[in-house]
Write a structure and sequence with these properties.
This protein is mainly α and 113 residues long. 72% of the residues lie in helices and 0% in strands. The chain has a domain of 65 residues. The longest helix is centred in the first third of the chain and has 44 residues. The protein is elongated, with a radius of gyration of 22 Å. The N and C termini lie far apart (67 Å).
């Protein structure tokens, strides 16, 4: 009976470890998704065209067509999309009114450098 309790305890420890691993993975996916959503919000505020946004999305999906071994495909797609959105030249342009002088930002997601 004692041996059975030890085995059950080990099994529960393994399950707990698997749950913790899954929790960490989901947390990382949530963080990446939030980054992507913030970048999309910034691009929307900068009036990015649907065509340009579509090209970014298609480029992301094309580059993730063949999943890399050892990397979760969902996370890989989110990571690539975040990189593509962050590299968007519209985010790096300086608007004319910003070049002329300081202005207050109405959207807290847009960061002035």
């Amino acid at each position: 009976e004692l041996q059975q309790k030890v085995e059950e305890t080990e099994l529960l420890k393994m399950e707990l470890q698997m749950l913790e691993t899954e929790r960490v993975r989901l947390s990382l996916v949530e963080e990446k998704l939030m980054d992507v959503l913030q970048l999309l919000q910034q691009l929307r505020d900068l009036n990015i065209s649907k065509r340009a946004l579509g090209k970014i999305l298609l480029s992301t999906l094309e580059s993730c067509r063949d999943p890399q071994p050892g990397k979760a495909q969902l996370f890989e797609v989110l990571d690539t999309l975040q990189q593509e959105l962050a590299a968007c030249e519209l985010l790096h342009r300086q608007p004319l009114e910003q070049a002329q002088g300081p202005r207050s930002l109405s959207n807290p997601l847009v960061i002035s450098c």
